[in-house]
Amino acid sequence: MKKRLVALALAAMTAFSMAACGSSTSGSSSDTASGEQAASSDTASSDSSASGRTLDEIKKDGKIIMVTNAEFEPFEYKDGDDIVGIDVDIANAIADELGVKLEIQDIAFASCIPALQAGKADFIAAGMSITEERKKNVDFTDNYFNASQAIIVPVDSDIAGRADLAGKTVGVQTGTTGDSYCTNEDGSSDVQVGEVKRYEKAVDAAQDVIAGRIDAEVIDNFVADKLVEKNPDKIKKLDEALTEEQYAMALPKGSELTDKFNEILKDLQDSGKLDEIESKYLSAE
């Protein structure tokens, strides 16, 4: 801080400087660093925008912003320069029903909820499982997919099931339910792993399994299938799942969009469109 040589002048300059910093905003929520900074707080903003943009505001803007982590095939992943997948097709169907365009922002999975709370996105679609902890910070839509957490090990591993993870070094993607289950900070997990190693990308954990740097990886079932499919002679997925869970989209607490999303999701389910979208990506599974 500069010393106050001329009190009134410096007060004015300081006020101007602080106002400028306070009004500065990032042009994209894809800035992972800003998301990680927001993740340091577990509480949502208490200002009037905490419940997110209204439907009228979104329609006036002409677009709805989805935040995701495009590392989760077949739900969201990159095909060249495009982000595609089950969640993307569902989100596009919702945007079409609302009469707006869909904008997708790709960031670290652990930064998705902080970005939503910070008002950088209107909703999250990222193969996100419904958990009681997440319910404290977001509102979930009705679930649209049943899933599980799978265990990946080297092909010659003696790990045969979840109980064998005791005392082992296990890799997880930061912020996932696999992370929460293995870390077991609330004491609710019945599996006591030896050490948890966190990764931003599931593929990086898989590479460490292959290299022998960790004993196993816990990750969503469909990601596990894709990783094994690409490395069939090096890793395998165990038959026993670690957890069973449900995917849903997440919106700001108190958002008026939640009911509208549920209405559209029900229409997609009743019309068979939801099954059509899922079959498009899962037919080869």
Descriptive report:
By secondary structure, the protein is an alpha/beta fold. 37% of the residues lie in helices and 22% in strands. The strands form 4 sheets. Strands 8, 9, 10, 11, 12 and 13 form a 6-stranded mixed β-sheet that branches. A 3-stranded parallel β-sheet has the order 5-1-6. The chain has a 3-stranded antiparallel β-sheet with strand order 2-3-4. It is globular and about 55 Å long. The relative contact order is 0.17. Mean pLDDT is 84; it is low at 1-48.
Give the CA-CA distance, first to last residue. Answer: 60 Å
Which structural class do the helices and strands define?
A: alpha/beta
**Stretches with pLDDT under 50, minimum 5 residues:** 1-48
Give the count of helical stretches.
11
Number of strands: 14
**Approximately what portion of the residues adopt beta-strand conformation?**
15-25%
Largest sheet: 6 strands, mixed
Helix content: 25-40%
